[in-house]
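Request from the bench team (R.T.):
"We need a structural guess for the complex before ordering more zinc ion. Sequence and SMILES attached. Just send the tokens back."

Command: build protein-zinc ion structure.
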Amino acid sequence: MPRFYLTTAIDYSNGDPHLGHALEKVGADAIARYRRLRGDQVHFLMGMDEHSQSVIQAAENGAVTPRQWVDEMAERFRRFWQRLECSNDDWIRTTEPRHQAGVTALLQRIQRHHPDDLYQGEYEGLYCTGCEEFKTDAQIANGRCIEHPTLDLVPTKERNWFFRLSRHGDRLLQLIRSGQYLVEPEIRRNEVLRLIEGGLQDLSISRQRMPWGIPFPGDEQQTVYVWFDALINYLSATGFPEAGYERLWPADLHVIGKGITRFHCVIWPAMLLSAEVALPRRVWAHGYVQWEGAKMSKTAGTAVTLDSAMGRHGVDALRYYLLREIGFEADGDFTWERFDGRYNADLADGLGNLASRSLAMLERYRDGVAPPVTDGTTLDQAGAAALKAYAGAMDRFDLRTGADAAWSLVSTANHYIVQTEPWALAKAKRDADLDAVLAALCRCLYRLTVMSAPFMPGKALELWSALGQTGEITAESWNQLGTPPVQGVKTTKPPVLFPKPNPARTEEGGG
Ligand SMILES: [Zn+2]
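Reply to R.T.: structure attached below.
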């Protein structure tokens, strides 16, 4: 069974997660669930980045210790991700001993293999507390960080350890150009190549002794820079440096936001090259959820909470909307109108209506048991085509196109009902024709259930159960998509999968 180790970015311990965090987590979760359907042994890692300076400030403001603060934040984030049905197999916090051991070990390996890559120097620059990094001129607009236009940059000067990033540019270019180290989508790969081609500057990787963080190996007066520390979580979660960490490492996929490609596609692989540890295979940098054209982030202010978005139409509907409408490759606007519109058109009137009318007809005409007909119909042909398009898109992490493929089959199936008029077939007592239509609809629902499972795991399982299928939706379910085992299975009363809570608003809202 092929192994698939994927990670999300780990989040800062400040405030609650917002929709921007949620897009990344549900996107990665959809990929994890899809890879499991395809039979991979998935290991899905999420976690918290807990050594930032903002933790100290937040803790002071809240009159708790940094430890109490990060414990509380970790629990809050974890609960949000559980509610969003994230199926992560591991949860790492950078304050854990296993992570501290990994950071220390990686730096010691650099000291051993390439001691010239580390040197002491003085650093002077403008520091953004939102990014936790010094900003270069290109990253500053109107005297402020481009990512954090509401925060003041802090002039900072101190003695630090430096990492000789400049030495690794040529090797990184070669690895990325040759595809040995994949940076996707294409637009991000090009950005990263331009960045490296422009020349890399060495990087300050320690701070003068701070009360919070991991001591620099061999120099207790210095603390490991929070970003250098945080990146190593992907490796320390595998048990590195203990024997057997290669069972998981190298990672197959890092899912991150487009704003942190410099760290993940330049600094991180250079750190690993220097330590002589294998590089991850691929980085996917998604776009941002925008609200009225602006990035949604905690430090830049939030307009809509994750709670309110989950409460609108339920968690599965939010997952679907984020991945279908916002997408996973570029920026997209979140609006209530579009969310309501997608909910009504795609879910309530689309998949929900298809399931309820199909299962209602099966109940009325055949006591809920799918007829023993396995002959292919035009709907089966459409199902095979949709499945091919879906798998092709999902294999390249194009989640939006994957959802498009599945939901085009929903439309086709609803048309199929209109065209075949099962009620007329029943009235005319054309039993064989009616059997064929009802069986085709059952096979179609089976396929749609499996294809929608990565996007809306909870609703998919409800539909799975209504179809008379037992247990979870697994790789075995996927393998039966060619000829779904529905004939003779007793289905149950159609569930209302996507209720319309307020018909009046729906009618006048117009999506
Ligand atoms: Zn910033």
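Two things stood out. The chain has 19 helices and 19 strands. Residues 128, 130-131, 145, 147-148 surround zinc ion (CB under 6 Å).
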